[in-house]
Protein: V-type proton ATPase subunit C
Organism: Varanus komodoensis
Amino acid sequence: VVDLKEDPCRSQVVSPSSSVDLISYLTRFEWDMAKYPIKQPLKNISEALAKQITQIETDMKNRAAVYNNIKGNLQNLERKNVGNLLTRTLTDIVNKEDFVLNSEYLITLLVFVPKSSYVQWQKTYESLSDMVVPRSTKMIAEDAEGGLFTVTLFRKVMDDFKAKARQNKFMVREFYFDEKELKCEKEEMRKLASDKKQQYGPLLRWLKVNFSEAFVAWIHIKALRVFSESVLRYGLPVNFQAMLLQPNKKSAKRLRDVLNTVFKHLDEVAAASIMDASVDIPGLQLSNQDYYPYVYYKIDLSLLDCS
């Protein structure tokens, strides 16, 4: 699936000379002699249509996979930027100046403190463990739930400090400042955003063109089925009329009744089965599986209904 937030009602059938909306193409349908010459066997025409659709489907899957992979990776990175300060990425929050770096003995930790515990943190953080640097805490970020504080201490008491902080409901984040890693994460997000933007335009244009191609092929397949089924049912020489009917929902059943009455002489068995299926017998379900005295194929454009 490729979700590009396009309005399906704007879908069009595009030809070298013009473009029309789907309903107009359907109501004015003419067989494309250039693309599907009717002098060749029906099997050849059917195979050509199937090959075209298969190729479009294969290309779409490949293009969609590339786009969705980029989009998914970008969303995963963006998802890390949401949430509270206890879980979200800190790439755009921390600064080099907030940390004691390259020290053999000292380390700076990040601690998430609930808003209701700010005062308690200020009073107790220096005594949570030995060897905590006095007045080393500073709030570097805050959200609706709490604040993110730095604190500097000796490396050898880090585990003891974490345990004591946890007992007081101060949560130490497992984060250690690495400038190269942070830079790589920012660059990766920028690259993915750029790649997504570059893929979007060409993919959208390809989808519009090939949706048109697929729709045209689909309608030709419908026409081919109407022709072949009519010949199989009514024989040669060819003597039938194909037409397009678009009843509204309220008149659909009435239209069926009228068509059945008009054409029941073509297939008495089918007409009788329709009458039998219309009789509601408790516990018995009958289905004519869309088989009528006349050849019928449904073209469902309900997904493109703009009303």
Q: What stands out?
A: The beta strands are 12-14, 19-21, 106-114, 138-142, 146-154, 171-173. Helices lie at 22-27, 42-79, 118-124, 158-167, 179-234, 252-263, 268-277. Confidence is low (pLDDT under 50) at residues 278-288. Residues 13 and 25 are 7 Å apart (CA to CA).
